[in-house]
């Protein structure tokens, strides 16, 4: 305690003896710190998913198992959801038609080939793609069966597109994972319709992506934001608009 008192006394004596020099040194130090922040501003990384969940929660444990199945770290793997809605406000639902299914499939392929220019190298979906991580197989199966019924007139009963679950060549197809707010048609086969679904309020596509480290997450963020800008134009399709929901888009303050 005595040493602290001596140091404080000497410090006070120095300030009292050289007030101008002390103020000058303090201003120089403050100015140097401010200059550092101006040229090298701090970047605060936010994470919309990891930041609002307890580290030992059930959601984290389930996601860890999900990531392990695809041989990935749960901190690196992310889900991106594309929600497809009617383009015009007076249209409350999306009518299930061959044209709609074709355009949604084209959107899926467009996202997988979407490329963003970059000074280092173009940012592409393939650098984030998780091998074996196709989450749209039920929609792809539905479109496959739908095309068989509408374009090849397959009527032997091997393709049944009921809701919430159909079957194609004996394989169950969960349509409820992609079609929401569905309006059904009773006795649709008797009416010559290919599916029991007349319309849907929302149709979804899912993409699992992986970004290792800060640099890859930075590239993924630019890719998702560019895709989000495309969705905000509303000009992709004459039948629908789509919205992007992903960790990198959601983490932007």
UniProtKB/TrEMBL annotation:
Zinc found in the keyword field: no
One GO term of the biological process aspect: molting cycle, collagen and cuticulin-based cuticle
InterPro entries registered for this protein in UniProt: Patched_domain-protein
Keyword Nucleotide-binding attached: no
UniProt keyword annotations, A-Z: Membrane, Transmembrane, Transmembrane helix
Transmembrane portions of the chain: 20-39
GO cellular component: cytoplasmic vesicle membrane; plasma membrane
Domain of life of the organism encoding this protein: Eukaryota
PANTHER family for this protein: PATCHED-RELATED (PTHR10796), SSD DOMAIN-CONTAINING PROTEIN (PTHR10796:SF94)
Protein name (Swiss-Prot/TrEMBL): Transmembrane protein
Organism: Brugia timori
């Amino acid at each position: 305690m005595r040493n602290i008192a001596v140091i404080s006394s000497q410090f006070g004596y120095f300030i009292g003896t050289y007030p101008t020099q002390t103020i000058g040194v303090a201003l120089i130090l403050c100015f140097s710190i401010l200059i550092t922040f101006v040229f090298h501003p701090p970047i605060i990384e936010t994470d919309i998913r990891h930041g609002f969940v307890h580290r030992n929660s059930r959601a984290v444990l389930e996601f860890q198992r999900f990531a392990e199945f695809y041989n990935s770290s749960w901190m690196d793997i992310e889900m991106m959801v594309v929600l497809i809605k009617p383009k015009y406000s007076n249209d409350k639902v999306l009518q299930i038609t061959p044209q709609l299914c074709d355009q949604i499939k084209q959107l899926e392929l467009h996202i997988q080939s979407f490329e963003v220019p970059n000074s280092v190298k173009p940012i592409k979906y393939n650098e984030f793609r998780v091998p074996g991580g196709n989450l749209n197989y039920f929609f792809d199966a539905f479109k496959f069966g739908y095309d068989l019924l509408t374009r090849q007139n397959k009527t032997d009963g091997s393709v049944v597109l009921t809701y919430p679950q159909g079957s194609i060549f004996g394989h169950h197809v969960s349509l409820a994972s992609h079609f929401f707010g569905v309006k059904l048609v009773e006795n649709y086969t008797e009416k010559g319709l290919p599916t029991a679904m007349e319309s849907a309020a929302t149709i979804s596509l899912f993409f699992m992506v992986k970004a290792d480290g800060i640099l890859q997450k930075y590239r993924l963020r630019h890719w998702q934001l560019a895709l989000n800008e495309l969705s905000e134009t509303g000009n992709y399709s004459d039948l629908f608009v789509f919205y992007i929901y992903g960790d990198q888009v959601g983490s932007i303050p």
